[in-house]
User: What shape does this take?
Amino acid sequence: MSEAGDAAIEAAADTAGNWAKAGRHAGIAGAAIGVVAAGAAAGVAIERMTVGRGMRRRARLALDAEGPYGTLRGTPGTAVAEDGTELAYEIDEAGEGPAAKPGRGGKDKGAAGREAGAAAAAQAAVRKRLGAVLRRRSPALTVVFSHGYCLSQDSWHFQRAALRGAVRTVHWDQRSHGRSARGRSQADGSEPVTIDLLGRDLKAVLDAAVPEGPIVLVGHSMGGMTVMALADQFPEFVAERVVGVALIGTSAGRLSEVAFGLPSLGVKAFHRLAPGVLKVLGAQSDFVERGRRATADLFAGLVKRYSFGTPQDVDPGVARFAERLIEATPIDVVAEFFPAFATHDKAASLVAYDTVPALVLAGEQDLITPAEHSQAIAELLPAAELVRVPGAGHLVMLEWPELVTEALVSLVERAAAAPRRSRSERA
Assistant: This one.
């Protein structure tokens, strides 16, 4: 074996040993960390024997430089949550915002130029399509996007680009994610993260960014759960203001039964051990973040497996974008949020949305929130359009952006065209 291969395997062994040591005091959870670390390190060793570190780094830098994903910005604002946490949001007003342009550096030819031209044409088509129906709404309709776990508002990049200027939109970052501040009640240990807390955060954002007018709510994964929690706690607000809802790659409950693509015998063990493992990792965040950087190649592989249904077909720039979104979430935040999903149960709250146009969309290959969970949601929403995307994974809005955008545009059309009803009629 080559010296490079020997060095890679030696480094991998050291990584496994360090991870195991970090979790030793956690008993069974520590042992689980050691096993996972050993497997991860072995995979990294094999990959590093075939591709040089410098080459991998240059490839990532090239993708980051060329891909405009996540660069869209709007008018910034800040909402304040009940515990004082500052929640960042941005507004794109209807009729404002530049049309889609070529990528960075002013490229106007080749693949980049063709892609930009197609994006501009799609944006123009959306503006024309929604223009007539939205002009009849006064006050203006606003579409509010809530992102998922370990993501940020930038995960809606393609949909934001297509809708820009056609309809008023609000994009916000959940507490401890993206540009929002670290959750105060979590930092001081006074309150754990719950889906109900996130629902109240959304209400604070709506009060600040959309003080009047009809609202279409769009939520992906944890963002969809946040939308359900809003309805559970503020049904009167939903009855009066919400005229449409999109629930994408999400679940109304029973997440403790999700297999995550694991063998049946390992599912119960995973759900039993995962919170403890993450708690140990979160308590040693500096060490873990260094480990994440050292095992970046393995991390990228895991992101692809759990984000996309057909990772081999995903544009490398989009895959790298998803990787950057997820790796930006600190491990202690990952650990804080994870337990909230086990107790999430908001099926009963869906009744608040059963009279408005709805979209329920899921990837058939989603390993995190299986398509069957979306099917169950759709059965509780008589006015819902159910879209199951063959071959798509959890980040369906990045993997199949045109399809998701088309479904959202159709929802906005239905919501804007629906006759306005009085509060008593909707309640």
